[in-house]
Amino acid sequence: MATEQVETAVGAHLVGGLKAPDAETAMSTAGAILGRHLYAVTDGETGERDQWIGWQLGKLTSIEGIDVVGVKETSAKDNPEYSGFPAVAVDSAVTELPAGSLGYAQAAESSYPIYKMLRREGALPDGVKFQVSVPTAYASVVAWIREEDQEDFFGVYESAMANEVERIASVVDHRDLVIQYDVAVEIGALSGAFAAAGELGDKRYIVDALERALATPAGDVERGLHLCYGDYKHRHFTVPQDLSLCVELANAAGDRADFVHMPADRDTGRDPAYYEPLRDLAGGRLALGVIDYEGDEQRTRELVRAAAEGSGEMEFAVATECGMARIDERGPGSPSLERLLELHAMCASPIR
Hints:
Layout: E1 9-12, H1 23-34, E2 40-41, H2 56-61, E3 66-72, E4 85-90, H3 104-121, E5 129-135, H4 137-144, H5 147-171, E6 177-183, H6 185-190, H7 203-214, E7 222-227, H8 244-253, E8 259-263, E9 285-289, H9 297-310, E10 316-318, H10 337-347
Parallel strand pairs: 1-10, 2-5, 5-6, 6-7, 7-8, 8-9, 9-10
Antiparallel strand pairs: 3-4
């Protein structure tokens, strides 16, 4: 069944995760269904990466001097599933991390040749870029590290993540590469869902850290932001009432970000007023999470129309609120990856 298209909905943005057994399946499935709707394709964050930063616990605790020592609570009142995070202690002797120990560069190095093969064979259209989505340093430090160690360890992890991104940029042709920084825990701290130690909880610190992240890698690589209110079991840690905080963070990043993705809550996002802060957005390509995770076509229509009306008819790519690696978390009846990708194509025009 054809879905009416809103004129300003153009193209599809893939946040990161895709529910698939491997990178080749993830990218070929996206290419087959979305084709010219795609600006960039991700490798699906398959395998151990399917729980976003969850795999970083194993990476960190494999390093001498870093260990899980207990549990820390959160204040994520809108989703109690976020309570009870592991608390990781870092010995003061840990002043740098081993090269490549976070695993992001290794994952990109493994999937980039697959992307090039699929493009060469025509499974991905010419011009579709290779998007590598990585968390900010803030995400892993504030989510996993106990508060008394966060400030001392932040610079250590930040340097290690910057090295990972620089390594990615050294092996992926800059003409192909798009780097997306995932910004979720920052929003959790600013909205009161997560506790951050000392100055890490200050908005100025968060913005400065975002600016440093967006300065990496050096050179002419395209980069942007995925702004998120959490997605565990497809529920936010705090339900956004509008996009004002996202617009504030995007504008603070300025022209360092070539694009920005923002969530569209499946309930509050059906009100055009939710999107009105977008009228103050400074610039860059925009993607909005208007594709309903449950595959509800009517709800998706309502979200797309509300976004167009509330934003003042801004052009935007359609997307889900977060990645699609965990689309079966709601149990029986959850839509397939193919269904959600088809809904992207139904709701937006191909990229001109």
